TrEMBL record:
SMART domains documented for this protein: PGAM
Stated name of the protein: Probable phosphoglycerate mutase
SUPFAM superfamilies: Phosphoglycerate mutase-like
GO terms, molecular function: phosphatase activity
Classification via Pfam families: His_Phos_1
GO cellular component terms, semicolon-separated: cytoplasm
List of residues binding substrate: R11, H12, G13, E14, T15, D16, W17, N18, R61
The organism of origin for this protein: Andreprevotia lacus DSM 23236
Active-site residue numbers: H12, E85
């Protein structure tokens, strides 16, 4: 179960590897020019959302995105180590393919983090982030978003684009399910 508090989630801005559809995993790839602009745009969209805490993955692309947003909102950043993307071992830098489907299905090649281990680690990191004063903004990765989809049972037909902010609301007296809204 996910801690039932409202929060924001934002996948990092674009990198050159995103633009080339290469799996990044734990590779510490910086934002490209477009990614930095996406982060500045996200900061403007999030300005009046009342965010009190920003929690970020330590990987450069997420941290750089969080830094730009933090500057725009006048906040500091809490780094949550376990918000890192999955360690994909020998497949980092490659195009997603059958190997990714196999990994999600439970097959782990040498040097890779298991999918189940990634899910457990990420869930614990999200819980850690949500113990901070809220509303919290979590800045992380596409894999983190996939775990959030499982935890909230909000399954979108498409993956989350770079620097797209979502507001997650827990179930309440009027609604028995999680909801998310694009910001």
């Amino acid at each position: 179960m996910l801690t039932p508090v409202p929060f924001y989630f934002l996948r990092h801005g674009e990198t050159d590897w995103n633009a080339a559809y290469r799996a990044q995993g734990r590779q510490d790839i910086p934002l490209n020019t477009r990614g930095r602009q996406q982060a500045r745009d996200a900061a403007l969209r999030l300005h009046d959302c009342g965010i009190r805490t920003i929690c970020s993955s330590p990987l450069l692309r997420a941290r750089e995105t969080a830094d730009i947003i933090a500057q725009g909102l006048g906040l500091s950043i809490n780094t949550v180590q376990d918000l890192q993307e999955a360690h994909l071992g020998p497949f980092e830098g490659s195009m997603p393919g059958r190997w990714l489907q196999r990994w999600r299905g439970g097959h782990t090649d040498a040097g890779m983090e298991s999918h189940a281990g990634f899910q457990q680690r990420t869930q614990a990191a999200i819980h850690e982030a949500l113990t901070q004063p809220g509303p919290v903004l979590i800045v992380a990765h596409g894999g983190t978003h996939a775990v959030l989809q499982q935890l909230t049972r909000i399954i979108a037909d498409t993956h989350q684009t770079n620097a797209q902010a979502l507001f997650f609301q827990p179930p309440d007296a009027l609604r028995s399910y999680w909801s998310s809204t694009l910001i």
